[in-house]
């Protein structure tokens, strides 16, 4: 059995630190600058196009182009499985685990359906980002005041019933630990009110290419797994917890904890 001497181990650690510093420098001086550039250009085209497209299709196309550019520039590869579960002409609710800011470009670039995000209302008050969210048809929701939150979730459900597919992160925010967080009931309250199927999606490896609270974008392999749709027709609000558990079980069934540390 071959062993590694202390000097070789030290040299290996030093080499690892050098590679890490060079990778971070590349991210700060090249990748991130291009991402900001893509965001400015695609966001501007999206806002201008919204003057002529009230349905958000042009804005969604701009978001897909923005996402494709980010993934290609960053060297991020995505293995996709289960797209046959998605009918682009059907109104659906996509429920996805949330590990990284890179989740959003991966979803935009690879889901073959028009969808809108349900996001906290405070984001809609930000300059530029808020304008884009509103003009693109994304849906604000209130989270911190229970009575208003209930009304906003009913409004979201109404927009879904009108034919607008949405994407939800049922954990509520990005995981800082790399583990699946508890699912919040609001996503499933909306789904039962809307009476449309939920499509669970598992993302793996996105934390490795961009960890939360860092600017270190790294090339790497990620994975998007689309699970069979879970019907909500006939469910009542008493079924919120059971539906939440069913969706969480589907996402967890292919969640690779080791790839998300």
Question: How would you characterize the overall build of this protein?
Answer:
With 261 residues, the chain is of the alpha/beta class. The chain has a single domain, classed as Glycerol-3-phosphate (1)-acyltransferase, CATH 3.40.1130.10. 46% of the residues lie in helices and 13% in strands. It is built from eight helices and seven strands. Strands 1-7-6-2-5-3-4 form a seven-stranded mixed sheet, with helices on both faces. Helix 4 links the parallel strand 3 and strand 4. The protein is globular and about 65 Å long. The two termini are 30 Å apart.
Q: Spans with pLDDT under 50 lasting ≥5 residues?
A: none
Q: Got a strand count? A: 7
Which architecture does the CATH hierarchy give at level 2?
Answer: 3-Layer(aba) Sandwich
CATH domain topology: Glycerol-3-phosphate (1)-acyltransferase
How much helical structure, as a percent, in the residues?
A: 40-55%
The Rg value, from CA coordinates, equals: 20 Å
Strand order of the largest sheet: 1-7-6-2-5-3-4
Number of helices: 8
Class from helix and strand fractions = alpha/beta
Give the structure's gist in a few sentences.
With 261 residues, the protein is α/β, with parallel strands linked by helices. Helices cover 46% and strands 13% of the residues.
Descriptive tags:
single chain; 261 residues; alpha/beta; Glycerol-3-phosphate (1)-acyltransferase; seven-stranded mixed sheet; 8 helices; globular
Walk me through the topology:
Layout: H1 6-49, H2 57-74, E1 76-81, E2 93-96, H3 103-110, E3 116-120, H4 129-135, E4 139-141, H5 146-161, E5 166-168, H6 186-194, E6 198-204, H7 206-209, E7 220-226, H8 240-252
Parallel strand pairs: 1-7, 2-5, 2-6, 3-4, 3-5
Antiparallel strand pairs: 6-7
Helix pairs in contact: 1-2, 2-3, 5-6, 6-8
């Amino acid at each position: 059995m071959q062993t590694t001497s202390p000097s070789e181990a030290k040299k290996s650690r030093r080499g690892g630190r050098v590679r890490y510093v060079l990778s971070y420098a590349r991210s700060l001086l090249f990748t991130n600058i291009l991402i900001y550039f893509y965001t400015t250009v695609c966001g501007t085209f999206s806002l201008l196009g919204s003057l002529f497209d009230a349905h958000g299709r042009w804005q969604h196309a701009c978001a897909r182009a923005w996402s494709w550019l980010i993934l290609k520039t960053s060297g991020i590869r995505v293995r996709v499985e289960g797209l046959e579960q998605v009918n682009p002409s059907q109104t659906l609710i996509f429920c996805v685990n949330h590990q990284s800011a890179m989740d959003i470009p991966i979803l935009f670039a690879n889901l073959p359906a028009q969808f809108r995000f349900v996001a906290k209302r405070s984001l809609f008050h930000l300059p530029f980002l808020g304008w884009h969210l509103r003009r693109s048809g994304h849906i604000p929701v209130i989270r911190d005041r229970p009575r208003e939150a209930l009304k906003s979730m009913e409004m979201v459900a109404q927009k879904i019933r009108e034919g607008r597919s949405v994407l939800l992160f049922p954990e509520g925010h990005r995981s800082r630990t790399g583990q699946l967080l508890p699912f919040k009931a609001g996503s499933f309250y909306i789904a039962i009110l809307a009476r449309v199927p939920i499509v669970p999606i598992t993302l793996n490896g996105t934390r490795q290419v961009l960890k939360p609270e860092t600017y270190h974008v790294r090339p790497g392999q990620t994975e998007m797994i689309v699970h069979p749709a879970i019907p909500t027709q006939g469910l009542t609000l008493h079924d919120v917890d059971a539906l939440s558990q069913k969706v969480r079980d589907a996402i967890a069934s292919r969640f690779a904890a080791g790839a998300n540390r």
